[in-house]
Amino acid sequence: MTRAEHIRALLEDYARQRAANELAQERRYREAIMKAPRIEALRAESASLALNAMRAILDGKSEAERIAIAQSMKARGLAINAEIRGLLKSVGLPENALDMTYRCPKCRDTGYVGEAPARFCECFETRLRLRQYEDGSMAGIDEQNFERFDPDVFPEADGQRKRMLEIRRLCEAYADEFPNFKFRNLVLTGSGGLGKTFLLNCIFERVTSRGFSAVRITAFRMFEAMRQQHVGNDEKFDGFTTLVEAPLLLIDDLGTEPMMRNITVEYLFTLLNERMVNRRHTVIATNLTPPQIKERYGERVASRMLDTSVCLTALFKGKDLRQR
Ligand SMILES: [Zn+2]
User: Fold this and answer.
1) Of 113, 155, 157, 252, which is most buried with the most CB atoms under 10 A?
2) pLDDT tens per residue across span 135-154
3) Superfamily of segment(s) 139-323
4) Ligand 1 is a single-atom ion; what residues have CB below 5 A from it?
């Protein structure tokens, strides 16, 4: 299944959920009026209040009269709600029995949050990633998890295998304890071919399989999202806003993206700064050393990326696995 098909199927699932919510509410309502019939009249009166307000406006009443009517209706509305709650309680039902209940109160089971352009809710993103993960359409990811981490591929010489086992332990603890690991951010640094991407994918797999929402992106695609944002085109799902707001963002291969004036450094700063201010979690894999990060992106970006109070830097050293 393609991503678009997953999204369509998931939106249908959300529509079914909303219908189920309404049915459940209807059931609770019927039970309530069976036990306390007066609730039906109160609800009817409550519904007519808004209609009466509309009539007052259409009747051409003065501003002062309209305000007085609105206030008295509001008071009546509150009184009705209080009486309904009292009735529900008196017949042994919860006071909020007639409220709509949602699987996700944040998006009210629409799958979307925010004003236009609305974004997918966290719950939707998580479900989407799980669906994709389950049907294996996220290429390669399903094979890259901590269980498949094989320390024997690393040479024992110079303590490389031992160091990799330590880094693996660290990454696994980060993923298992997310979002409570003692460091919010991880930077996996070192030259290519030492398994950084693999471990980054392992973290992604573990965190999402624990039900958290995470976004994994290559630096190149991140750059694309920045460029789209810069030209005012952030309609796409994997847009810059998504990167800013993901509870966990994993950026692979930082340093391979193009350096474009007014974009790369500026948007990377915005991204890291926003995420820092909002205490979101970020994992970065890069071939750049900390001094190279500083050189490429400048002090402001480097200080946010490598801030030792919230970030743990793991240095990968040793022989390139791809050259063995
Ligand atoms: Zn939601």
Assistant:
1) 252
2) 655 545 556 788 888 777 77
3) P-loop containing nucleotide triphosphate hydrolases (3.40.50.300)
4) 104, 106-107, 121, 123
